[in-house]
From TrEMBL:
This is Lipoprotein. It comes from Mesoplasma coleopterae. Residues 1-19 form the signal peptide. PROSITE patterns: PROKAR_LIPOPROTEIN. Keywords: Signal. It comes from the Bacteria.
Length: 477
């Protein structure tokens, strides 16, 4: 059976700095992931009533890896594996109907019959069908696989009139003849060589999303009549997102702060690496690249206390995967409202929903590829050749989930102060994805996605349809 590079989204990835590719014989070969340096201190300490960077601390590679992976782990590792599996996908190796269904599903685009892997085999064409292939390539705007990029470049360089007539801005990146010849010489797309990656170096400069919260200026004031109490909605605008999660204004315990000072950080508000401590740093996250145009996930929100959840809120709450910052139609002018209820004991239940999706700057990777690697041991065979592949990938977005919560502010005796119980909204980084239309795991209406083309595949939605190779160099190491 030919080796098949798995692109099933349920890949299990180690949280360490290594990852692996999976073939249909379940032989895995690890590759190392090198993370970029980060100059600013990632270690935070509690000083003057809030957490601040520990300027005297020098980051280690392990710190950067932890910060990229986040509190729940494996974000950077799983992202790199996703990228490698897409880049080295080969439609020629989809030898069963089941595997064909999977890759067609993951690479499908909004255009019927057009797939983001860019390979003409996607449409079932043969090389002799020039007219059909011309038509197919005229519809392609982005390419996710190296083989697809090779095929597209070879076709474009053959002076196909249909492809050449495309507007330059709508055409994929095209490889030069020397690069094409060298890639062909490497036999990179032969089935026995599809696990040749030995090292992945991330060259992009990470960006720390500081994760401030939007703190309400007041609590809800209610007016009562004979039937029910009506509470005034509170606006939280983009200008309000300037409060730290742990500070004297928000989730602060005076006794814990005193313990921190007395024990020099061994008790109380202890030091942590950014993004790794949810109790101290619920929203900050080191992202694998910078948000485009300094975008942030923070949105204008209304917070409303209610006696019971409204029917509108119930309907929205079912749509957990809604992209809240997507373009709205002229008719859709209703504000984003997060409701909450409060019982007689003061316990609150919040009903926040959806995601904010932020496009990230392109990611640059440097891959080390060996053209004859032993699939059992992972070691290069005698006479094999190493290649350096430097490439830029665009189309990545970061998904942030809103959290509606309430301040917790206690004095030395553990009693609540007047700063306790004020609503705030924060945005928690959840995942990366190559899809800007909706959130992985949810359909276009924001409802949990249940369709599965295969029982072996995790439910997802157009995982790679915005992935795009925008630059590439290929040379012998």
């Amino acid at each position: 059976m030919k080796k098949l590079l798995s692109i099933i989204t349920a890949l299990t990835v180690a949280a360490s700095a290594t990852s692996s590719l999976v073939s249909c014989k379940v032989i895995t070969n690890e590759f190392k992931i090198e993370v970029p340096e980060y100059e600013q201190s990632l270690k935070y300490e509690f000083k003057d009533g809030q957490y601040k960077p520990k300027e005297s601390y020098k980051n280690t590679e392990a710190d950067v890896k932890k910060a990229l992976d986040g509190a729940t782990g494996t974000f950077a590792s799983s992202l790199v594996t996703d990228m490698i599996n897409s880049l080295f996908f080969n439609a020629n190796l989809s030898v069963t109907e089941n595997s064909k269904d999977i890759w067609q599903y993951l690479f499908r685009t909004d255009k019927e019959g057009i797939y983001a892997d860019g390979q003409y085999r996607t449409a079932g064409f043969k090389k002799s069908q020039n007219e059909e292939i011309d038509k197919y390539y005229s519809e392609i705007t982005n390419i996710t696989s190296l083989l697809g990029l090779m095929q597209y470049s070879e076709w474009t360089n053959s002076n196909s009139n249909e492809v050449q007539s495309l507007d330059e801005s709508g055409k994929p990146f095209v490889l030069g003849k020397e690069t094409i010849d060298l890639i062909n010489e490497s036999n990179m797309f032969e089935s026995s060589n599809n696990q040749g990656i030995t090292n992945v170096k991330i060259n992009s400069t990470p960006k720390l999303y500081k994760g401030n919260i939007g703190l309400a200026s007041k609590t809800n004031n209610g007016s009562s009549d004979a039937k029910e109490t009506v509470y005034e909605p509170i606006d939280i605008t983009k200008a309000d997102y300037n409060f730290k999660y742990i500070s004297t204004d928000t989730n602060y315990n005076e006794k814990t702060a005193k313990e921190t000072e007395d024990s020099k950080g061994t008790k109380g508000y202890v030091d942590y690496i950014s993004g790794t401590n949810l109790s101290a740093d619920f929203f900050s996250q080191l992202l694998i690249s910078s948000p485009e145009a300094d975008s942030t996930p923070e949105l204008d929100i209304q917070v409303q206390r209610v006696e019971k959840q409204s029917e509108t809120s119930k309907e929205n709450f079912k749509k957990q995967g809604l992209v809240l910052n997507s373009e709205k139609s002229e008719k859709d002018t209703d504000p984003i409202v997060f409701e909450y209820t409060q019982d007689e004991k003061g316990n609150r239940t919040s009903y926040a929903y959806g995601y904010s999706l932020i496009p990230l700057a392109p990611v640059n990777l440097e891959l080390t590829y060996n053209n004859n690697r032993d699939l059992k041991t992972g070691e290069p065979k005698p006479g094999s050749q190493n290649y350096k592949i430097n490439l830029t990938i665009d189309g990545l977005s970061a998904a942030f989930k809103p959290v509606l919560s309430f301040t917790s502010n206690l004095d030395l005796e553990g009693k609540k102060t007047d700063k306790d119980g004020i609503p705030y909204v924060g945005w928690r980084f959840m995942n990366y994805q190559f899809n800007s239309k909706n959130i992985i795991g949810y359909d276009e209406k924001g409802i949990q996605f249940t369709e599965k083309p295969s029982k072996k595949m995790t439910a997802t939605n157009k995982k790679f349809n915005d992935f795009n190779i925008t630059d590439l160099t290929f040379e012998k190491a």
